[in-house]
Specification:
The chain has ten helices and eight strands. The chain has helices at residues 3-9, 23-27, 39-44, 49-53, 69-77, 90-102, 118-121, 149-158, 172-183, 210-217, and strands at residues 35-36, 59-63, 82-87, 108-112, 127-133, 159-169, 188-194, 224-230. The structure holds S-adenosylmethionine.
Length: 232
């Protein structure tokens, strides 16, 4: 990539130019059918993601999709569902796209953006569900967590009634805190929760994420799981 093109390209991602760029930054361009990084293009699909996918299938959003194992597993298992996976890290996005292309997935899109910006590019009642798997628990700085009241304000806008937030975590305190928080929410209801997903009725259909595999196999950690439904 020439210096001139690089100069324009970084502005998709950073406010100011940097001295060194992550080599995967420019490699996002290798998979235009799987990775979207231009905010203007994303915003132009607000309320129109069905047009992007070319069908009327339900749309699910995942925040913090890592290297894509969950998104890809879900899309393979449920081909009649569209999955928008949001991630910040260049290499993880690139890996996700590479794996998706290998199996020619048609129902997944990886977006380089902060999950908190969803209302800017997702329309009212546009999504049927949201997945958040193993988000950073921000120990000591819990106010930075993604699952807090503002997330439910976002879901008030973008999630259909009857749609759900699905949350998995190895972090027992985060799990307890989300259960506590949900008691304050008038239009949401916990419809399922377990502190041992892999020994629950939900384990059969569970798709493993990268972090989940690590916590299970290396640390034999119990996995917590919550489903919260938007009831009105
Ligand atoms: C702990 S990892 C979990 C990855 C994956 N969900 C898994 O379970 O293996 C959290 C991921 O969320 C991404 N992330 C963190 N904050 C984010 C945000 N505000 N918006 C989108 N992605 C975010 C990180 O880059 C990281 O890949």
């Amino acid at each position: 990539m020439s210096d001139q093109i690089k100069k324009e390209y970084w502005s998709h991602f950073f406010k100011r130019p940097k001295k060194n760029y992550n080599p995967y930054m420019e490699r996002l361009k290798e998979y235009p059918e799987y990775i979207m990084y231009d905010k203007e293009i994303m915003d132009s699909y607000k309320g129109k993601w069905k047009e992007y996918f070319g069908n009327n299938n339900p749309i699910y959003v995942e925040i913090g999709s890592g290297s894509g194992n969950f998104a890809i597993g879900m899309c393979e298992k449920y081909p009649k569902v569209n999955h928008i996976a949001i991630e910040l890290r260049f290499k993880r996005l690139h890996t996700s796209a590479r794996k998706s292309k290998k199996i020619d997935l048609k129902n997944v899109l990886f977006i380089k953006r902060f999950g908190e910006e969803i209302p800017e590019f997702v329309g009212e009642n546009e999504i049927s569900g949201m997945y958040i798997n193993f988000p950073d628990p921000w120990e000591g700085n819990e106010r930075n967590r993604i699952i807090q009241l503002p997330l439910f304000e976002t879901l008030d806008k973008v999630l259909k009634i009857g749609g759900k937030l699905f949350f998995k975590t190895d972090h027992d305190a985060y799990y307890e805190d989300v259960l506590e928080l949900s008691k304050e929410l008038k239009n949401y209801k916990v419809v399922y929760n377990t502190c041992d997903l892999h020994n629950s009725e939900k384990s059969e259909n569970n798709i493993l994420t990268e972090f989940e595999e690590l916590f299970l196999n290396k640390f034999q950690k119990n996995i917590n799981y919550i489903e919260i439904e938007k009831i009105k």
